[in-house]
Amino acid sequence: MANVLTPFVYWAQTETQISLKVDLTDVKDVNVDLDEKKLRVVAYGQGARGLNNYEFILDLYSSVNAEESNYKVVNRQVDFILKKKYPAWWPRLTGQPQKPTWLKIDFDKWTSEDLEDNEDEKRDVCNDYPGTYDRLHKEEFGYRKEDFKKVYLIIYNLCQFVGFVYVHIVMAVMYSRDGPAFMKDTYAAVGNAMKFIQLIQFLEVMHSLFGYTKSSTFVSFIQVGGRAFILFAMIEAEPRMQTKPVVFYLFLVWGTIELVRYPYYIIQLLNIEISFLTWLRYTLWMPLYPLGFLCEGIVILRNIPYFEETQKFTISLPNSWNFAFHFPSFLKLYLLVFCIPLMYMLMSRMNQTRYKKLGKSKLRKKYVYFNE
């Protein structure tokens, strides 16, 4: 018995069964002894200590049905399915509180497809049993292991929130000091910060493109790209527009929307529910989106004569490409063909999302919950 070693064993569970993965390859001579509360496995195979005899014994937390349980040997492991005698969520696999060092938690299976009859049904145990999931993570790693994607998104949203807080604080302080006279200096005061924030927002398009968020890539690009067009092509490119009061109102509307949106995303990532913030997120857009589109439309309209005068971004014939582009005409077309449909599309989408988040049935449930 001196040559008998213990393999690594990974476990996961549903309410009705336990799955075990024994980390052995090229397995031969498997001997399995299973009763209601004990599993003993002896096998010869390639494990962490090379080709050798391996053995482990598990004293189970509760009873299993030995007749309905089974195992199979595959190329890279030995898989066990142990049917629980009584459907229940086990707080641990073993009867003893101390977990053997060779026993690991198979977190991949905890959030993958349920191994029961319904193959289409997905189970997210992290959401279904957050307390148990967190405790097992802490037991396994000594701390709550967070997903890199989640940590990154929290940091991104927090940085964007801080950026818009900075813009709003500067605008508020200077307006309180100088009054409406400050409006003409808005872009000089916060324009660089707003440009930096806006460029960083293009990461949100990448987030949806690579599956970091569930938002539409097209909608994200339209929203971020539309703002970037106003900021860089309409304001940054025309110094006379930078001193107009409409820039102050535009930045105020943009910032107010984001000062609610980014904290809402952060609490969603942290699985925290703040009803008032949710209500703000899906209600504040109703006055602010039309105001934002109005300010953007004014910026474009005021810029048309400026670009007629300067011919900036206009390509005239003759040229080597044999191509002409009249930028002021494009701005008129942009207003008629793009802005109005875009406003309708975004507001319709937000209205549908608002109904899902704040529909009558959900509001009624929350009201009943808080008054019980």
Folded structure, characterized:
Keywords: Coiled coil, Endoplasmic reticulum, Fatty acid biosynthesis, Fatty acid metabolism, Lipid biosynthesis, Lipid metabolism, Lyase, Membrane, Transmembrane, Transmembrane helix. The chain crosses the membrane at residues 151-175, 218-235, 247-267, 279-301, 321-347. It is found in: Endoplasmic reticulum membrane. Residues 4-94 form the CS domain. With 372 residues, the chain is α+β, with helices and mostly antiparallel strands. 52% of the residues lie in helices and 17% in strands. It is built from 12 helices and 8 strands. Helix 4 packs antiparallel against helix 5 (186-200) and helix 8 (245-269) crosses helix 9 (275-281). The model is unreliable at 112-123 and 360-372 (pLDDT under 50).
What descriptive keywords fit this protein?
disordered C terminus, 52% helix, 17% strand, transmembrane, elongated, alpha+beta, fatty acid metabolism, three-stranded antiparallel beta sheet, 372 residues, transmembrane helix, five-stranded mixed beta sheet
